[in-house]
Amino acid sequence: MSICPKNKSSKGRRDKRRANWKMSASTLVKCSNCGALTVPHRVCKACGHYNKKEVVKLEEA
């Protein structure tokens, strides 16, 4: 059997359901070492530190 609604859904009811599909800005925190903005719980791309320890050695070009 296919899906077949018993009654018509109004535009308001339909749009209320779709109202929660919105974009949100990603959360950014300051790096504890260099102060650059980075995503939480990730290694800093600017200095390679995570949780006050150097995790990735970055080469300077």
What is the count of β-strands? Answer: 4
Q: Any idea what the radius of gyration is? A: 23 Å
Mean residue pLDDT: 90
Distance, first to last CA:
63 Å
Secondary-structure-based class equals: alpha+beta
Classify the helix fraction into a percent range. Answer: 10-25%
Strand content: 5-15%
Shape: rod-shaped
Strand order of the largest sheet: 1-2
Largest sheet data: 2 strands, antiparallel
Low-confidence regions: none
Order of helices and strands: HEEEE
Number of helices: 1
Describe this entry's structure for a reader.
There is one protein chain. By secondary structure, this protein is an alpha+beta fold. It has one helix spanning 11-18; strands spanning 29-30, 37-38, 49-50, 53-54. It is built from one helix and four strands. The strands form two sheets. It has a two-stranded antiparallel sheet with strand order 1-2. The model has no long low-confidence stretch (mean pLDDT 90).
